[in-house]
Every structure is written in structure tokens, then in C-alpha cells.
């Protein structure tokens, strides 16, 4: 942050900017504390001090095992997915000038579901190991993830292709997303209709979303993609700010609007598709995290992007911890929990007037 | 200095919106672009900084062709204020700072902040600098947008109907501001405007567009009842009031 001059206007602006950074710092601290609590809490409670020791490889071997091998990967995936989905949603809302834009509304999640269903039915991606729902498993996660990724990227490229033909207008992207979303939802329904009970259970299980299914290599890939996307978005934060003022104004400010839109959509979709293909459908995070933070830091993407990313991580950590603890040891599906907790919160925000972005 | 030569534009090859547009604007001069709705005024303005790319012609600023420049270079030479600015949840200060976008590499520099501060002080916008622009009145927002355009430090300022949504007091304030910054910053200003009397009061030269081309262009001498009637198809008289021409429609 640059320090600026001596005038009252500059001093006031410095204080204003300082408050935004303080909000981001507070979010980072809350996310860290929530992550510690999430590692500590579970069917086997581990005190936070023991968690800290276990993270350093010290303390009881059982604690190290549970903390490092079971809970830490889950928490890291929650943070990565939350950051990735929220940042992607934030950018999609900006470049499409639509407050409802997210991986779900653009058909990326539905494409991933379709791809996963294909993998489960035709490539033996899922099976049932017992009689209860917990025993349904995705026994070939790589094939399922790869198919989900290919299908969601197919959606992305169709949207981008159609949009490019129409000069990347936001309306074209949204409408193409809605059409493809419906198309793939229908395709998945048809696959389920003709599938066996086992296959159908596996498809439904996959679409629930599960942070625990990601392996360390999955987490690494998702983290690298998310970090690269976040860096790209931050480099473009002034372009997104300019787009807030309208297409012609942005062009007048030196922004290549079509290129910023197409590249932004590609990176955001790639990031969302990578996460969804590893953890399944997690609704509302990409939609609600930017909306919450608009209320606190406004539409300036210098602050909105990091704040939304952290809020996404925090929301997903809270939801996942809730899903693990509420009827422990049963772990509820995270996708259902984010929707269940997110929808009332979203309604509250609309009621309080955060839907403001819709008019801008 | 802005020189426009043989500018042509059409959305379809069969129908031209602009045909052989040729005019020039000196530094420190404000030119009003006048004409009926659909005459191509706003389109012409957008062609001058390649928001819309014209099919033919040249737009020269100090002999450098704008149409051959990259987007960022154009944004350092010209600034554009849209007819209706979109409000957003950013402060007026940040909106003006956005005018430094063509110069910002990673983050704004000390100089960028100094320029914004100076503009805010010179336009007396201190009181609204930390207010969100979507909470400003139409007149306040338009002043902020003009301030943002000034932050681009342009050689040519393009204004598309900056007073169309404003009440009389704000119309006068905004146009007085434009007149002042034209002279003080010694920049060429092209302004699309509907009100002939405001144009007479605040602009130096007048460009009438009719049937996709320039009908007449010049100083106050072209502001005659014959020219106005020919362009607008409305009978008018042009009277003198306090040594200034006033256009009075008769129908």
C-alpha cells in the first residue's frame, strides 16, 4: 500500500483504505482460528494445543495420525475450495455484470455432474460396499474427476465460443450458461433413469459434494490452480474496477473488454471446474461469499477479491465443521449444508439490500 | 490539437452512419456536436477514441493517429465520459483514481495519488470524495466522472451529452466546469449536446451533423436560423440577448 500525501482528503482516504485492510486481516485471522477449531473438533476431540503439537509432528501418535492424515487434508481442501469458488464467483459476477453468476448458474457444476455420471456408469467409477449410504463409494476417483473436469470445461468452452461470436456480451454468456445447465441436468437425469441402483446411488453420492474424498495430490493440484487463478485475478483488479463503470467507460480507460471477459471467464471456469471435479457440487459459496463482502468492502476489487476468497474459505470451513459435528459420527453432505445454510443467509442479504449490485 | 479526416463508419456495409467526417479542434477549444437524434453524434464521439472502430479515416492528436494506437495509449491521449455513468459501490476518490488506470502498472504510485488529490481540490470535490458514487446525485456523479477523465491527463476530452439527465442548475455547473478545464488545461474538448443555447454559451465552435455527414462547422457565425432549421426541421429565430445569441423555437 502506498502512503499518500499530507492533505486532509489523502489522510481520510488512507484511513478508509486502512479499514478495508483491517477487515481482510480480521477475515484471515478468523479463517485461521476456524481451521484450528475444525481440526480439533470431531468424533475424537483433540485439544487445540495438541493440534498445534501434532501439526509439528509432536505429541501422541494417534493425534498426529488423526490431525495430519485425516483432518488436515480435509481442512486444506475446504480452504482451497472456498477460496477458489468464491474468487471465481466474484470475478464471474463482475465480468458478466450479473449478481447471480457462479459456477452453478453457468452450468459448470451441472456439466461436472454429467461427466461424473458418465464415469460412474460407463467407466466403473462408483460402487456400493455395504448396505448404508456411507458405504457408497467412488472407487475410481481419478476417472470420475477427469470426466467431471472434461464435461465442465466443455461447458466453459461452448459458452466462451458462443460468446466470442457475439463479442463476449454478458447476456450471451449467461443465457448460454442457463441453456447448457438445463441440457446437462437433463442428461444426468436420463443417465440416472437408465442406471442401476448402485450406479444411481454413486451418482447421487458424488453430487452431494465431499471434502474428504480429495487426496493430497488432488489438494495440491486444486491449490496450485486456485493460487494461479487468484494471482491472475488480482493482476486484473483494476480492469474489473473499470468494468464496474460500464463497457464503454472501461474501453475509454484502456481496457480490452472482450479479452478481459474471455480470459477472466476461462480462468474462473477452469478454477471452479478443477475444484468441482475433485469435491463434487458445493453450492452457494461462489454466490454468497462475494455478496457478503460487497456489504463490507464495496465493489472495489482490490479489496473485494481477497475478502471474498477468505470469506469463501471461512464459510466452507464453518459448513464442513457443522456437517461433521451436528450428528457426529455421521458426516452430512457438504453441498446440502452450504445450500441449507447459504439460502437463508442469501435471503437475509437480499432483504437487507445487498442485491444492490444488480442495479449497478 | 485534434484533426479528424475522412472518418467513415457503418454497422452494415450498405448503410453509413458517418460519411467523410472532417474537422479539427484546437487546444483550449470546446466544440459542440449538434444534430437530430440518430444523426450519428454519439457514434462519431466513440469513433474518435476507437470505442467503436471506424472503417476509414484518420483521427490525429498532435499528428499521431489514434486509430493505430494500442488501447492503453489511446486512454493516455483521450478521455471519454459516457452519457449515463453507471453507479457502483466505490467511493468518488476511487472512481477518480480509476482515471489513472492507463498509467497504473501494479499499484497506484505516489504521483497518481497526488494527481487525484489535486483534481479533487481544483474541482472542489473534497466533501464527496469518500462517498459511494451510487449515492451521489446526477450532477455530483457527472462532476466525478469528469474528474476521472481529467485524471487520465488527456489531450482530448470527449463528453457524450454530459447534461442530459441534469436539472438546470447542474447543467450550468457542469458546463461551466467543462469550459474552465478546457482553458486551464489547454485541452481539446468535443461535447455532444442537445441544448443549442447551452452550446452557444459554453462552446467555441459548432459542428452540425445531418444525414450522416457534417452539414456545417464553424464559430458562432454558423448558429443561424437557416442552418438550425435545415438540420432540425424546426422553424426558429436567433435573437441577440446581452450580446449573446439565443435560439427560440417557433413551433
Which structural traits does this protein have?
heterodimer; A: 360 residues; mainly alpha; ABC transporter involved in vitamin B12 uptake, BtuC; two-stranded antiparallel ribbon; 14 helices; 1% strand; globular; disordered N terminus; B: 251 residues; alpha/beta; Rossmann fold; 32% helix
Number of helices of chain A: 14
Overall morphology of chain A: globular
Work out the largest interface and the residue count of each chain: A-B, 35 and 46 residues
Summed over residues and divided by their number, the pLDDT of chain B gives a mean of: 91
Write down how many β-strands of chain B occur, each being a DSSP E stretch of 2 or more residues.
12
Largest sheet entry of chain B? 6 strands, mixed
Overall pLDDT level of chain A: 84
Largest sheet strand order of chain A: 1-2
Low-confidence stretches of chain A: 1-6, 354-360
- Return the domain count of chain B: 1
Q: What spatial order of strands do you see in the largest sheet of chain B?
A: 6-7-8-3-9-10
CATH architectural grouping of chain B: 3-Layer(aba) Sandwich
End-to-end CA span of chain A: 27 Å
How many helices of chain B? Answer: 8
- Beta-strand percentage of chain A? under 5%
Number of domains of chain A: 1
Superfamily at the CATH H level of chain B? P-loop containing nucleotide triphosphate hydrolases
> Would you tell me the structural class of the helices and strands of chain A?
mainly alpha
Amino acid at each position: 500500500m502506498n502512503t499518500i500525501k499530507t492533505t486532509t482528503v489523502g489522510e481520510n482516504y488512507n484511513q478508509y483504505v486502512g479499514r478495508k485492510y483491517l477487515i481482510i486481516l480480521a477475515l484471515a485471522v478468523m479463517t485461521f482460528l476456524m481451521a484450528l477449531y475444525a481440526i480439533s473438533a470431531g468424533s475424537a476431540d483433540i485439544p487445540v494445543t495438541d493440534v498445534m503439537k501434532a501439526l509439528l509432528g509432536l505429541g501422541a501418535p494417534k493425534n498426529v495420525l488423526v490431525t495430519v492424515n485425516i483432518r488436515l487434508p480435509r481442512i486444506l481442501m475446504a480452504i482451497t475450495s472456498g477460496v477458489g469458488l468464491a474468487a471465481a464467483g466474484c470475478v464471474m459476477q463482475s465480468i458478466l455484470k450479473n449478481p447471480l453468476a457462479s459456477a452453478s448458474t453457468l452450468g459448470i457444476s451441472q456439466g461436472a455432474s454429467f461427466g461424473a455420471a458418465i464415469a460412474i456408469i460407463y467407466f466403473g467409477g462408483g460402487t456400493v460396499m455395504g448396505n448404508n449410504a456411507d458405504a457408497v463409494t467412488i472407487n475410481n476417483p481419478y476417472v470420475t474427476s477427469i470426466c467431471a473436469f472434461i464435461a465442465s470445461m466443455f461447458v466453459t468452452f461452448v459458452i466462451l465460443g458462443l460468446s466470442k461470436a457475439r463479442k463476449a456480451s454478458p447476456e450471451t454468456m449467461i443465457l448460454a450458461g442457463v441453456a447448457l445447465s438445463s441440457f446437462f441436468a437433463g442428461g444426468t437425469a436420463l443417465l440416472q433413469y437408465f442406471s442401476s441402483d448402485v450406479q444411481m446411488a454413486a451418482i447421487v453420492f458424488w453430487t452431494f459434494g465431499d471434502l474428504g474424498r480429495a487426496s493430497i495430490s488432488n489438494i495440491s493440484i486444486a491449490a496450485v490452480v486456485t493460487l494461479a487463478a487468484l494471482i491472475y485475478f488480482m493482476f486484473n483488479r483494476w480492469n474489473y474496477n473499470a468494468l464496474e463503470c460500464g463497457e464503454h467507460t472501461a474501453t475509454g480507460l484502456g481496457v480490452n473488454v472482450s479479452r478481459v471477459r474471455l480470459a477472466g471467464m476461462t480462468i474462473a471456469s477452469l478454477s471452479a471446474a478443477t475444484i468441482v471435479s475433485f469435491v463434487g457440487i458445493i453450492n452457494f459459496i461462489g454466490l454468497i461469499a462475494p455478496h457478503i463482502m460487497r456489504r463490507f468492502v464495496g465493489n472495489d476489487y482490490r479489496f473485494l477479491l481477497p475478502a471474498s476468497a477468505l470469506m469463501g474459505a471461512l464459510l466452507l470451513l464453518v459448513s464442513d465443521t457443522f456437517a461433521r459435528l451436528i450428528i457426529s459420527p455421521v458426516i452430512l453432505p457438504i453441498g446440502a449444508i452450504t445450500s441449507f445454510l447459504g439460502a437463508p443467509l442469501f435471503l437475509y442479504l437480499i432483504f437487507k439490500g445487498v442485491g444492490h449490485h444488480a442495479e449497478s | 490539437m485534434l484533426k479528424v479526416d475522412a472518418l467513415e463508419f457503418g454497422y452494415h456495409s450498405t448503410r453509413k452512419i458517418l460519411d467523410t467526417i472532417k474537422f479539427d479542434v484546437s487546444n483550449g477549444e470546446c466544440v459542440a456536436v449538434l444534430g437530430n437524434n440518430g444523426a450519428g453524434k454519439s457514434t462519431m464521439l466513440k469513433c474518435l477514441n476507437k470505442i467503436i472502430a471506424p472503417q476509414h479515416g484518420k483521427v490525429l492528436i498532435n499528428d499521431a493517429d489514434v486509430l493505430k494506437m494500442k488501447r492503453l495509449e489511446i486512454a493516455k491521449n483521450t478521455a471519454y465520459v459516457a452519457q449515463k455513468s453507471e453507479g457502483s459501490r466505490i467511493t468518488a476518490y476511487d472512481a477518480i483514481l480509476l482515471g489513472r488506470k492507463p498509467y497504473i502498472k501494479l499499484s497506484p504510485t505516489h504521483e497518481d495519488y497526488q494527481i487525484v488529490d489535486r483534481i479533487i481540490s481544483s474541482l472542489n470535490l473534497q466533501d464527496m470524495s469518500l462517498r459511494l458514487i451510487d449515492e451521489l446525485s446526477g450532477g455530483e456523479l457527472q462532476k466525478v466522472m469528469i474528474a476521472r477523465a481529467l485524471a487520465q491527463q488527456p489531450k482530448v476530452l470527449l463528453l457524450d451529452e454530459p447534461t442530459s439527465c441534469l436539472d438546470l442548475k447542474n447543467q450550468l455547473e457542469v458546463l461551466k466546469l467543462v469550459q474552465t478545464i478546457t482553458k486551464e488545461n489547454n485541452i481539446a474538448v468535443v461535447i455532444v449536446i442537445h441544448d443549442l443555447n447551452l452550446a452557444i454559451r459554453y462552446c467555441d465552435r459548432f459542428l452540425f451533423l445531418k444525414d450522416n455527414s457534417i452539414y456545417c462547422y464553424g464559430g458562432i457565425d454558423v448558429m443561424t436560423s437557416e442552418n438550425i432549421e435545415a438540420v432540425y426541421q424546426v422553424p426558429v429565430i436567433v435573437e441577440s440577448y446581452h450580446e449573446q445569441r439565443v435560439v427560440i423555437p417557433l413551433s
